[in-house]
């Protein structure tokens, strides 16, 4: 099968790979043995009526088709050339794609089937829009070459006013099926053809297009018109089904929005207890994601005749509201709910809508650690530089999905800020956001902190056990900060949790399934840590599904001024001062500093300055002492001496330690880094 397509304002042929095993059930209608060769011109006798009309504008034949005569008259008034008949009216290829985008997809299966039925009979199948523009033409190579001579292909308009009487144009004019054969066409160049066209209507009767079958006039048959009408009806049924599906989709989205806007947890189940829908409140209650439970069987019990029975088998339907006990799939807890039955038009029970009891929701949640709430969104990230905007856009693209994210960046670049923003834009945003600093938990406690522990797991364990951070984050996001500091012996346990999506509390006997999104962060190069044997390679690749590297402050051109103004306003309100302006020299000093501690160091420096400001103007003298020293300015264009970042960092540490006379606490605070980080850097650079 070939398609005639329009490309670069030219027609060309494309071979389609249609394969089917069914027989050509109606080929006999198109290939009678007595016809012999095809594409033969009609005789003068056959054309006599047409010639007479061209001369006189009248038809003397009493039995001549009145619809054809009316069409000829319209063509004569429109001054259509009766000899030429080659289409000159086209739309652009872009407009063609726009018009045919969805319509062609719906019609294609029926066109393919119809072509298979007429394959080898030298007929082409044509799809036309409501204005007479051809959208798609398929057929064999021989017949498409005949069509190409008349520009009978996509983007061409075959209305009567452009190419004279033909099945497409006349059906467009009359609004009902039409067959035109040989000299019935107004233009002589069409006399080789027979064509049958039928309108395609929507459910409300509106015409949205036409379907046509055209081929050699010698093979004309009344059955062809019946075939094309039947195919058009099949297309109408398909379009009606698509419209119904679209309406159902819109209704479902509307109902979903309604369900998610109410404060009660709601679960929809069918009569067999299969969960068909769950709103976000109910999913959050059970620490589950909706995708995990839809399609699963719900265990629901009710007291009936003094005994606890399966609710869905009790009285076969429950024709009244019932208070039932729910046990969610995966052992995620239980809750009391009210069941409201749903009935069909014939009063058959179709299922239930379960409304969770508010009192029991709070009971369920009381057994879990209090959920943390993410405070920041992407709109809270200050900055207009290209570096930070590109990073934000990348984070936004990956935020909605469930994939693990690894955030890399220097200390103080805002890794937790980005983690909270990703959580707030994800499908887990209605669940908790639980941050964990892997470097701050003592080595001997990290397993129980992360995975929790069972009753009596160890001496001093809390009675009844305690849930860990993973369980606290169920249904939400767990942020593993400083993941590079996690001990090696714990890394294998973390890897197992990520792969199995379940945890085993310390001293526990039953694993707990989880639905938690993991976001990890580090200021280290995990790849280097792997090469040095300090981080597991398999865990690195499991965490590094999506990697986002945050830019350091020194490469964020123009952002220092925005951040300074924002934090001056915020910190001044906090201490009860009103700072209306920042001296230009002060802002220049801040913009020319290399900020090894990034945004965190900038915020600390601003807070220091705000506390020492006594007027409405923040001046250079209010900045920390190390920022007022000229040697900390970055080289200006044209200066010869440019230090490496490592040398700058070493120089900054040495001068800060000297300024504070070796006081580690005050020096680390001034540099905007932790004491342990300062010790590590002193060891790295050999500073005593």
Description:
With 688 residues, the chain is of the alpha+beta class. It has four domains: 2-16 and 39-242, 2-Layer Sandwich (Beta-Lactamase), CATH 3.30.450; 262-366, Beta-Lactamase; 378-549, 3-Layer(aba) Sandwich (Rossmann fold), CATH 3.40.50.300; 554-685, Helicase, Ruva Protein, domain 3 (Orthogonal Bundle). It is 39% helix and 18% strand. It contains 25 helices and 23 strands. β10 and β11 form a beta hairpin. α4 crosses α8 (222-261), α19 (559-574) crosses α21 (598-612) and α24 (664-671) crosses α25 (675-685).
> What is the percent of helical residues?
25-40%
Number of domains: 4
By CATH, the topology of the largest domain is Beta-Lactamase
The biggest beta sheet is recorded as: 7 strands, antiparallel
Q: Helix segment count?
A: 25
In terms of structural class, how would the helical and strand content be classed?
A: alpha+beta
Shape designation: elongated
Level-2 CATH architecture of the largest domain: 2-Layer Sandwich
The counted number of beta strands is 23
Assembly category:
single chain
Radius of gyration, CA atoms, in whole angstroms:
38 Å
> Roughly what fraction of the amino acids lie in strands?
15-25%
CATH class of the largest domain: Alpha Beta
CATH superfamily of the largest domain: GAF domain
Q: What is the element layout, followed by pairings?
A:
Blueprint: E1 2-7, E2 10-15, H1 27-30, H2 44-56, H3 66-77, H4 93-118, E3 124-129, E4 134-139, H5 141-149, H6 160-163, H7 167-174, E5 178-181, E6 193-201, E7 207-216, H8 222-261, E8 266-270, E9 275-278, H9 280-285, H10 290-293, E10 299-304, E11 307-310, E12 322-327, E13 334-343, E14 349-356, H11 358-366, H12 386-398, E15 405-408, H13 415-424, E16 433-437, H14 446-451, H15 469-472, E17 477-481, H16 488-500, E18 502-503, E19 512-513, E20 517-522, H17 526-531, H18 537-543, E21 546-549, H19 559-574, E22 581-582, H20 584-591, H21 598-612, E23 617-618, H22 625-628, H23 645-659, H24 664-671, H25 675-685
Parallel strand pairs: 15-20, 15-21, 16-17, 17-20, 22-23
Antiparallel strand pairs: 1-2, 1-4, 3-4, 3-7, 5-6, 6-7, 8-9, 8-14, 10-11, 10-12, 12-13, 13-14, 18-19
Helix pairs in contact: 4-8, 19-21, 23-24, 24-25
